[in-house]
Amino acid sequence: MTKNVPEGDFLYTGAKVKIEDKDVKKKDKKILEPDLTSLLRPKPNMSILGIRPKIWIYNITRNAKKGPLKWIKKYGEPPVLFSSVKVDYNRDIVSNRLENKGFFVANTSADTTIHGKKASLTYLATAGPRYLINTVNFTTDSSDLGKAVHATAEESQLKIGDSYDLDVIKVERERIDSRLKEQGFYYFSPENLIIQVDSTTADHKVDLYMNIKDATTEKAKDIYKINNIFIYPNFKLRDTVQGKSPAAVKYKDFYVIDRTNMFKPAVFERTMFFYKGDTYNRADHNLSLSRLTSLGTFKFVKNQFIESDTTQKALDAYYYLTPMAKKSIRAEITGRTNSANFTGSEFTLSWRNRNAFRGAELLTLSAYVATDVQVSGNNSGDGIFRYGTEANLSIPRFLTPFKLNTSSAYIPRTKIVLGYDRLERQSSYKLNSFRTSLGYTWKESLEKEHQLTVLGVTYVHAPTVTDAYKLLAATNSTYRNAIEDQFIIGPNYNFNYTNTARAYKKNTFYFNANLDMSANLLGLIQGAKEENEKKLFGTPYSQYVRGELDFRHYYKLGLNSQWASRLIMGYGEAYGNSRSLPFVKQFFIGGTNSLRAFRARSLGPGIYRDPAQDSNDTISADQSGDIKLEFNTEFRPKLFSIVRGALFLDAGNIWLLNNDTNRSGAKFTKDFMKELAVGTGAGVRIDASILILRLDLAFPLRKPWLPEGERWVFDEINFGNKEWRKDNLVLNLAIGYPF
Known about the structure:
The protein is an alpha+beta fold. The chain is built from 13 helices and 30 strands. The chain has a 17-stranded antiparallel β-sheet that branches. Strands 8-9-7-11-10 form a 5-stranded mixed β-sheet. Strands 1-3-2 form a 3-stranded mixed β-sheet. The longest helix has 16 residues, at 166-181. Mean pLDDT is 89; it is low at 377-381. Its main location: membrane.
């Protein structure tokens, strides 16, 4: 590592800051020392377990002119030399940082440690007493600006008794500026505020005085209103940038300059939060930009405010919008896995029109063809061939008989879907599925989203069933449910909350709630009962209520590790016209994204065990239930680079609401906790951000179908036994995290 270090110099291996002061609390040292160390320059060469790979690459490729060594040369770096370290500069940086944190008498020295051809530094900081805030005073004048600044005092981040901190003072100036921007002070900036510090009035305490700088311009002191609003929905550089264009069309409070008449002016009424005469405020400014962006029609959205040349203390607003290509065709080939352990590929061809009816509507026509094979599970090797088509119209507003608006930064959408799917399951059956729906999607905020399907209709019909499957269906309702004609008609509501995008938070959460209903009103009107089955277009319709909750918690452990947990609870009840939930609405458990120690859809319900699970001669049915309870937890440490590990524990089961003569022990009872399946395992994930490949190896700890008292199987675990591995080890290969 040191062979290219010049004589008389040393390889610089890094530095640290150590605070030697009994007056500084231990918890404060833990925060300050890493913070101060991060300021030191230069940074040493990267080290992995004491080895510096980039120096090694540099050494072996230094004189490379061609071949493989020249290709990897760019990954090396020369050794960082001790002579390049500016010790005095770093000492000043540490002392200055401590002063900014309230240690006004801080002093720093440096100590060098040399081992052979390597050298490191330790900066010893004597912090001294930390100064606290004694008083906070907003000493402003009686002008509009002065009053506005003084009105922010109650929410000040500067608290009496807190430590002096320059970073908090900067945040306070930004906070005040944000408040003023909501009140029309367009030209004001944080630099117009000064906080004066007096440390002479009390021992180790400071008095703070918030003032407006004398050099503040008159513009910064004035409140501005909105004058004219110009919107260029098909902006080109040749268009007039300022002033009302001759081609402008006045629509209510806006001037729309659209030379090609590409958009209806009403589109912008739903996106703009500014109106002529309004006082400028940053919130409406940002909301308007967010709504224009969320339309999904424009490639670029730019905005400019210019002082009006006709009205004093007024701003003309300009919005320059560059649309995306109106029409596009997209082809996709994807590899996929799902919770039923099916692995396969799918080809999708889609055509898009981003402005179908001049109202920024998104019309998508798509068709797909796919093939899947169950690589492990109930019917390993059983193949599925699928194809279908869909028309999807997304309208950027609530399409309702009455006017309905939202104040969110996100455009609400009305969605109309019409689709057809064909599923051909080798050696079993073929299904036709027709579906249509009308619904709404809207977001309260970045974290909260609502989806309401006012009316969804699904019709499923099996035109072809193999003789072998018919024999099984004749005696077992589990098989029969999968091929029954299904007519589902009703609403669906879904609420989703997540703050997982806030990567800086230690605790983040995900919550999803879904309520699904079918034919509740129709069944009531027709008086549908089990003994008096009603039909729609010659097919009995399903009548049920179904709900599902999915709660997840993510806990950061250091910078690169995470503990993730999930709880799923589901309940569905068929009534009136139905004896059971439609097959597609029932709950399943097991597989790559569920209980990984159990094959997909092979577990349950309750303590029931399908005999076909242990036979290769019989088609095994997917086991389903009316009630679901599932818990998963896993530790996700970063191993190195993009490779992460996992240690996990999964538990759960499904149950039926009523007895089933073909599935003994499947009904939900008060002893349900004794019927939980438990599995554990370990995994590796290649997290390349755009693609996550996952490999999990799991095995059961508790098998609910065994006699009570024998369900925990710790004593049977034997990795050296071939038969045990064959019966118990489950390898899950998947794309993406399980949750």
